[in-house]
Design goal:
The radius of gyration is 19 Å and the shape is globular. It is an all-alpha fold. Helix content is 70%, strand content 3%. The protein has a two-stranded antiparallel ribbon. The N and C termini lie far apart (52 Å). It has one domain (4-188).
């Protein structure tokens, strides 16, 4: 039964192999190039949006079926508790860094592995931000713990079934893909 962390030390090797394969696939898809990734913010390249929507939907459907088949126990998964205000601010900081640097933490690691200096600069900046956060944590901890909602899953927050949530995610993703295709078609004409 999943998760892998309950399977012993071999799971760390499996995680490394999966991570390396994922990084290689990101590089193959051009996600280690800041111009390609930042293209989303300039409405020129929607590959990042398509990849993220596809990954989220694939993961959600996969987890759903693994749980349904009895191969996954949701209670064994760690789900980060929701703290609305600090996570909103963190998302804004993340988004600003993403837009300015053209890479997210994962794609910056891919860029570093590919020998790109912009990826190294972003990775070093991220490590500096982590160290700064650690140094300031005692001062910002009250805000860090504000807006607590505990562990929240989307079906629970929306008050609907998992199946309806997955169907909604699929409709949103397919609608986004359709709108991108139409918009790109008009831009080309």
């Amino acid at each position: 039964m999943f998760p892998l962390s309950s399977q012993g030390s071999n799971s760390l090797w499996l995680a490394l192999v999966i991570g390396l394969a994922f990084g290689a696939l990101l590089e193959q898809g051009g996600m280690g190039h800041a111009r390609k990734v930042a293209g989303l913010f300039y409405f020129r390249d929607f590959a990042v949006l398509k990849i993220m929507f596809s990954a989220i939907l694939t993961c959600a459907i996969g987890l759903f079926w693994l749980a349904r088949l009895g191969w996954l126990d949701y209670d064994m998964l760690f789900v980060e508790p929701t703290f609305v205000w600090p996570q909103l601010v963190g998302g804004l900081i993340f988004g600003a860094g993403f837009a300015i640097g053209g890479l997210c933490p994962g794609t910056s690691c891919v860029a570093v592995a590919s020998g790109r200096l912009d990826g190294l600069a972003l990775l070093l900046g991220m490590l500096f931000g982590i160290a700064l956060f650690n140094e300031l944590f005692d001062w910002i901890e009250p805000f860090y713990r504000s807006g607590s909602m505990g562990v929240s899953r989307l079906p629970d927050v929306l008050g609907v079934s998992e199946v309806l949530t997955l169907a909604g995610l699929a409709v949103i993703a397919m609608s986004a893909f359709y709108l991108i295709r139409r918009w790109r078609g008009r831009a080309m004409a």
